[in-house]
Write a structure and sequence with these properties.
Length: about 290
């Protein structure tokens, strides 16, 4: 990656936000403590907030390099990500979420990794910002590799992703048709690899990842993931992507039925997640006219 100058930052950190006034300061504070020595900027994309998010972000202008707020509507995370890229000046685009918190060495580690790959993804640490009850509701992200979608290809999660600007432009950015709440970041990494780009894991680029702590919100998120799986399958089945078979899905549904009494206990989180994800896959199958059980 070519080095930047003081007037043209070599790295642009893009943070999509929507009604994140209550949490965005923790991410901005974390970004203000980065130990990266090269020039960089922060682009916050306000995706139609109505809770004063922009005012909260503005208070950090004196503590972050070249902090800017751009607005993008209508709502949609991939549209916001693309708007941030259009407004960015850097040769490397780094994406993170407003409700997480980067570790001090995150930016520098992502920049190092991006010198060796077209798209990079860091590690999402779900321990620091979440209670044990919330953590046990979801499977943790792998600490030694990128996650893999449907046993097909690895992908960088949008909450901790980097891509060289020239690669981003060659790929045409994120696919804004992904609006169900899942698959939006996966699609980008898969498409990049199918077009010959390299995707790599940056284990030292650690992002403290905040999980949903309310059961209804968590269930809605998992339904979105399941719906996203169906759209991914529709878009990439001709390239070899496959969903789990019907018999495997039926066995999983049977296990959920047998374990339904857990709903009466405080340990219902994993059951709710699995049920919502499976339900999302069925809904997505109907929406996309593809069988993704």
């Amino acid at each position: 990656m070519a080095s930047g100058s003081a007037s043209t930052p070599s790295v642009s950190v893009i943070v999509p936000v929507r009604n994140a006034a209550a949490v965005v300061e923790s991410q901005l504070a974390a970004l203000s403590e980065q130990d990266h020595e090269g020039p960089w900027e922060v682009v916050v994309v306000d995706n139609g907030s109505t809770d004063g998010t922009a005012d909260v972000v503005a208070r950090w202008a004196h503590r972050l390099p070249d902090l800017r707020v751009v607005r993008h509507e209508p709502p949609g995370v991939n549209g916001a990500r693309n708007a941030g890229a259009r407004a960015a000046n850097g040769e490397l685009l780094l994406y993170c979420d407003a409700d997480d918190a980067a570790t001090t060495g995150w930016l520098a580690a992502m920049a190092r990794a991006a010198s060796r790959a077209d798209v990079v993804g860091g590690y999402l640490d779900s321990t620091a910002l979440n209670s044990e009850r919330v953590r046990t509701s979801r499977s943790p992200h792998p600490a030694d590799r990128l996650p893999v979608v449907m046993s097909f290809l690895p992908y960088a999660v949008g909450a901790n992703m980097g891509v060289r600007t020239e690669v981003f432009r060659a790929l045409g950015g994120f696919d804004e048709s992904y609006t169900a709440g899942g698959g939006d970041d996966v699609e980008f990494s898969v498409r990049a690899q199918l077009m010959g780009c390299s995707v790599a894991f940056a284990p030292d680029a650690v992002m403290r990842y905040r999980l949903r702590d309310r059961m209804w919100s968590l269930a809605r998120q998992q339904v979105g993931y399941g719906r996203g799986d169906a759209k991914l399958l529709k878009d990439f089945r001709e390239h070899g992507m496959r969903a789990s078979g019907t018999s495997s899905a039926l066995a999983d549904w049977l296990k959920l039925v047998r374990r339904a009494p857990v709903l009466a206990s405080s340990d219902r989180g994993p059951w709710v997640c699995r049920f919502a994800w499976r339900l999302g896959r069925l809904l997505g199958s109907a929406e996309q006219r593809v069988w993704c059980p």
